[in-house]
Structure to design on (410 residues):
C-alpha cells in the first residue's frame, strides 16, 4: 500500500478525513509578494530602500525588470501547490516614460494584468509610500501640506488602479495601505501626525468603488528602523479607523511586540469585521521580514483561520524579503510553508478538540494536540504536491536555474 493510503487510514482512525483536507486546501488562495524577487527594488530605477525596512545580503541573480521578475515567479510557481494570487507594489508599474507616484495610471499595470490572466491569478496591490525623495519626512502624515497632498494623490491613484485590476480579473483586488511615518525619538506631538493621517485617509477613501473590485485595508506597525519611538499608523489607530469607516485591517505578524501573537488576534477581528487581511512573515528580534518557516506561530495562525471556518474571510498574503539566499527558493519555501500550515490545520480533529475544551477535559485536549504532531503529515503533504503536479526535487531545479539563468544577470 502506498504511503498516502496508509496515512489516510491513520488519520481516519484519528477522526480526520484526509481527502476532505486535500480538497479544501487547494482552494485557499495565498498571495505571493512580488518584492521578494528583487529586494523590494521596483522598476522605477532603483534608488535606496527607505522607510525603516531593509534587505540584507547580496545573493547574486536578483531580477532587474518585469521580464526577469515574472520569469522567476513562473519558475517558483512550478513548485508551489494550491490557488495563488500575486501581490504587487505601485513601484512595480510598467511604464514607457517615467511616471511619478501621483501620476500612475491603470494602464501601467496592463502587463501585470495580462500576466495574471493567462495564469489564472488574482492580483493584490499596495501603494508605495517609501523609497521616494518625498517620503523622507512623513507621507500621509507629513506636516508639509504639499508633501501630504502628493501622497494623497498617490493613494487615490493606486485605489483607482486596484479597482481597475479587480474589474479586469473578475476577483477583488486587495489595496493595502502601509506608511513608514514615524519618529526615531520621543515625539513632542503624537496627536497632530495622527490627525493628519486620518484626514489623508478620509480624502483617499472619499473615492467610492464597487466592493466587487476592490477591498481596502490598512496595515499597522509598532516600530521600524529609525522609527523606534513612534509610528503614526499604530494598531489602535488603524483598528479604530477601519471599524469606523468599514474598511479592513491588515495584520502583519512582524509588526507587533514580540510576545504578542497575530494568531490570538484573528478571532477578535473576525467577530467585528467581514474580512481580515494578513501579511504572513517571520519576525526575528528587530527584523519583521524573514522567510516564512513552518513554525509554531505559523501553524497557530493557520489553525485559527481553519477552526474559525474563515478561509474565505481571511485574505492571506506573504511579506518578507531576504537578499542573502536564492530569492526564488525563498518564495518556494515561504509559499509552501503557508500551504503546509493550512493543510496541517485541516488535518486536526477540530470538532473533537473544541468539544474537549468546552467540557473542561484539558488533559485529553493536551494529549490530542500533541498526538497531532506525531501524525504522518508528510505523506499527505507529498500526496498534495503530487496531485498539484509540483513535486520533485525543487532544490535541484532551483540550483540548475541559478546556474543557467540567475548567474547570467549582472
Ligand atoms: C513594512 C510592511 C509592508 C512592506 C511591504 C513591502 O514593514 O510590512 O507591508 O513590507 O509593503
Ligand atoms: Zn507587511
Amino acid at each position: 500500500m502506498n504511503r498516502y493510503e496508509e496515512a489516510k487510514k491513520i488519520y481516519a482512525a484519528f477522526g480526520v478525513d484526509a481527502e476532505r483536507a486535500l480538497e479544501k486546501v487547494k482552494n485557499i488562495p495565498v498571495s505571493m509578494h512580488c518584492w521578494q524577487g528583487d529586494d523590494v527594488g521596483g522598476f522605477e530605477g532603483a534608488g535606496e530602500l527607505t522607510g525603516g525596512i531593509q534587505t540584507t545580503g547580496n545573493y547574486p541573480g536578483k531580477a532587474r525588470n518585469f521580464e526577469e521578475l515574472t520569469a522567476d515567479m513562473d519558475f517558483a510557481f512550478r513548485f508551489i501547490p494550491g490557488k495563488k494570487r500575486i501581490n504587487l507594489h505601485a513601484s512595480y508599474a510598467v511604464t514607457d516614460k517615467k511616471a511619478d507616484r501621483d501620476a500612475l495610471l491603470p494602464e501601467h499595470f496592463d502587463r501585470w494584468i495580462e500576466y495574471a490572466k493567462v495564469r489564472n491569478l488574482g492580483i493584490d496591490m499596495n501603494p508605495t509610500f517609501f523609497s521616494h525623495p518625498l517620503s523622507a519626512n512623513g507621507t500621509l502624515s507629513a506636516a508639509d501640506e504639499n508633501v501630504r497632498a502628493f501622497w494623497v494623490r498617490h493613494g487615490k491613484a493606486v485605489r483607482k488602479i486596484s479597482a481597475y485590476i479587480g474589474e479586469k480579473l473578475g476577483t477583488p483586488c486587495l489595496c493595502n495601505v502601509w506608511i513608514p511615518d514615524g519618529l526615531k525619538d520621543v515625539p513632542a506631538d503624537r496627536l497632530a501626525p495622527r490627525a493628519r493621517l486620518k484626514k489623508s485617509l478620509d480624502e483617499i477613501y472619499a473615492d467610492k468603488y464597487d466592493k466587487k473590485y476592490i477591498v481596502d485595508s490598512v496595515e499597522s506597525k509598532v516600530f521600524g528602523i529609525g522609527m523606534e519611538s513612534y509610528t503614526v499608523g499604530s494598531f489602535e489607530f488603524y483598528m479604530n479607523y477601519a471599524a469606523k469607516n468599514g474598511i479592513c485591517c491588515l495584520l502583519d505578524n512582524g509588526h507587533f511586540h514580540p510576545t504578542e501573537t497575530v494568531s490570538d488576534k484573528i478571532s477578535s477581528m473576525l467577530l467585528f469585521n467581514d474580512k481580515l487581511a494578513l501579511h504572513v512573515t517571520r519576525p526575528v528580534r528587530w527584523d519583521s521580514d524573514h522567510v516564512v518557516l513552518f513554525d509554531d506561530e505559523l501553524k497557530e495562525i493557520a489553525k485559527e483561520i481553519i477552526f474559525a471556518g474563515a478561509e474565505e474571510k481571511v485574505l492571506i498574503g506573504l511579506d518578507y524579503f531576504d537578499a542573502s539566499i536564492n530569492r526564488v527558493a525563498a518564495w518556494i519555501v515561504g509559499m509552501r510553508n503557508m500551504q503546509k500550515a493550512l493543510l496541517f490545520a485541516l488535518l486536526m480533529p477540530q470538532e473533537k478538540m473544541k468539544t474537549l475544551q468546552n467540557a473542561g477535559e484539558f488533559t485529553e485536549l493536551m494529549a490530542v494536540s500533541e498526538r497531532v504532531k506525531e501524525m504522518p503529515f508528510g505523506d499527505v503533504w507529498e500526496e498534495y504536491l503530487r496531485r498539484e503536479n509540483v513535486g520533485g526535487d525543487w532544490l535541484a531545479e532551483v540550483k540548475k536555474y541559478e546556474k543557467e539563468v540567475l548567474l547570467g544577470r549582472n
Remarks:
- The two ends are 50 Å apart (CA to CA).
